[in-house]
Amino acid sequence: MSEVVETARPADGVGTVLGHRVEEISAALDAAGDLIPSEAHDQAQADLRRVMRRLELGVDYTVVALVGGTGSGKSSLFNAVSHLEFADVGVIRPTTARAAACVWGSKATTLLDFLQVAPDRRIQRESALDGDSEDDLAGLVLLDLPDHDSVESGHADQVQRLLPLIDLLVWVVDPQKYADNVLHEEYLRALADRHEAMVVVINQIDRLPDAARDRVRSDVQRLLIEDGLADVRIEMVSAREGTGVDQLRALLARVIGGESVAARTARDETAAICRRLAVHLGPQDPQPPSAQETAERLALASGVPSVAESVRTAVSSARAVALAPVQEPASSRIQAIRDRWLAQVTERLPEPWTEAVLEGVASSEEFGAHVWQALSGSALPSGRDRAAATLRLLGLVIGGFAVALVIAAGAVMSTSGVVAASMAGAALAQVFVCIAFLIAARRRRRHTGHERAEDYLQRTTEALRAVVEEDLVNPTAAPLQRHATVRRGISSTDH
After folding, report:
1. Which of 52, 72, 266, 284 could form an SS bridge with 172, CB 3.0 to 4.6 Å?
2. For residue 198, how many other CB atoms are within 10 A of its CB?
3. How confident is the model at residue 260 (pLDDT cuts 50, 70, 90)?
4. At what angle do helices 386-412 and 417-468 cross, to 10 degrees?
5. Structure confidence at residue 420 as a pLDDT band (50, 70, 90)
6. pLDDT band, very low/low/confident/very high, at 67 (cuts 50, 70, 90)
7. What does the buried/exposed string (b/e) look like for 440-477 if buried means 16 or more CB atoms within 10 Å of the residue's CB?
8. Nearest Cα to 134, choosing from 86, 169, 65, 83?
9. 342 versus 128: which is more confidently predicted?
10. Mutual angle of helices 474-491 and 14-32, in 10-degree steps
C-alpha cells in the first residue's frame, strides 16, 4: 500500500467515507504500477496526500467565522451565540487580537491547530447542564477572527489565510461603519464568488431607533448589490439584548445540516484525481472473445467440418470411401483469427496496457504450429460400422432363405398345394424379416455416421479450444484483471 493511506484516517462520518475512497484510489495506483505514466502516477500520489491532509483536519466539522471590523461587536455576538462569556469584549477599545474558537462536540484539535487557534483560546461547548439544547449545533466550530481592519500587523493576513477553510462567513457590521471601504473593497467584492457562503449581520440594532432599522437594512442591501452580492442574506441582531440571536443559531443549524466546504473540496479533488487517471485506462474493461467461438472459427478455417461430413457420408453409405485427413490450413487464415482476437481484447486500451496484454501471448508462428498440432493429433474415426454390416448380412441371409423357400414351394405345388402355400407363407415372413434387418442396418449406419462425425468435430474443436486458452486466454488474463482492478478503484461511484 502506498504512503498515502498510511496516514491516520479521520473520525467517523463523511471523512471516513472519503478516507476509504482515497485508500481505494491509492491501492489502484499501486496495482497499476508502471502501466500509468510515472508523471501522472507521482502527481496523483501527491494529490492524494494533499486530500488526506485535508481529511485529517476534520471534514465533518462545519467552520463558521465571525468576521468584522473593530467595534462591530463580533466577540459579543460570539458569546451570545455560544451562550458563554469566553471571547474578549473590549470596554475602552474593543479589539479582537487573537482568534477564539468554540466547538460543539469533539475538540477538533487537529483543525484548530491548523487554524492556529491557541489552546487557551479554545472552548468546548458541551455541558451536562445543557441537556440536548445544543445538539442542533453539534459539529460546529465557531471562530471569532481578528478584526480585519486592525492596525496591528498580521491580523488581516490571518483572516485571509483562514477564509478558504470556512464554510460560512458571517460579516458582522455595526450601524455606524457598515459602509467601510476596507470591508467592501478588500473583502466583500474580492470574495463575491463565495456569495452562497456569506451572511451579513447588522449588530447593535438596539442603538438604532425602530424607524431607522429598515433604512439601515436597505442601505446595506444597496451596498451588497453594488458589491455583486445581491443574494447575500442580511440578519439584524443585538448581541447585548439577544434580539435575533435565536434566528442566527437556527441559520447555523441549517448550515451544519449540509456538507462542509472541506468535505466538498476533498470530494471534488478526489473526483478530479480520478478523471486525470482515467485517461490512462480503457473506457471499459475489455471482454475477451469466447474461446469456444474462436476454436470453431479455427475449425472452419481448417476444413474440420468438411472432414467430419466425409466421415458421416462414409459410415452412412456403407461404401468403401477413403477418408482424407484434415490438411494444414493456410497460415494467413490462422493469423487473421489470432489478430482479430487480440484486436478485440486490446480495443481502446492505452499503449502501455496493450503492450502488457500482448507480452505473454504466443507469436503467430507458435500459434499456427499449435493449431496444426491439435488438428493433426485428432484421430479420424473408422469409416465402417461392423454392427450395421452384421445386421445387413443377416438380412441378406434371411432374404436368401426366403428365395429358396419360394423356389421349393414352386416345385411341390404340383403334388401338394397345401404344403406349397405353407412354404410360400414362410418365405413371405422371411422377406419381412429381411427388410426389417436391412432397414435396421441402414438406420444404424446413419446414427453411427452422425455420432462419429460429431465426435470428431467436438474432439478437434476442443483441442483447438485448448490451444486458444493456452496461447491467448491464459497469458492475457492477469493483465486484463489488473486493468479491471485499477479501473474499479479509480472509477468507483459508490461514495
Report:
1. 72
2. 20
3. confident
4. 170
5. low
6. confident
7. bbbebbbebbeebbeebbebbbebbbebbbebbbebbe
8. 83
9. 342
10. 150
Query: What whole-number distance in Å separates Cα of residue 119 and Cα of residue 101?
Result: 9
pLDDT (0 to 100) of residue 341:
96
Q: At what angle do helices 331-345 and 364-376 cross, to 10 degrees?
A: 120
In this structure, how many other beta carbons lie within 10 angstroms of the beta carbon of residue 123? 16
* Phi, psi of 79, deg, nearest 5: -65, -35
- For the segment 269-276, the average pLDDT, to the nearest whole number, is 92
| CA 145/CA 111 separation, integer angstroms | 15
Give the three-class secondary structure for 425.
helix
Q: Do β-strands 122-124 and 168-173 pair in parallel, antiparallel, or remain unpaired? A: unpaired
Q: What tens digit of pLDDT does each residue of 114-134 get?
A: 888 888 888 887 654 454 667
Q: Does residue 375 contact residue 304 with C-beta atoms inside 8 Å?
A: yes
The string of DSSP letters for 105-155 reads SS--HHHHHHTT--GGGEEE---GGGTTTTGGGTTEEEEEPPPTT-SSTTH
What is the reported pLDDT for 82? 87
Distance, in Å, from the CA atom of 297 to the CA atom of 489, rounded to the nearest integer, reads 36
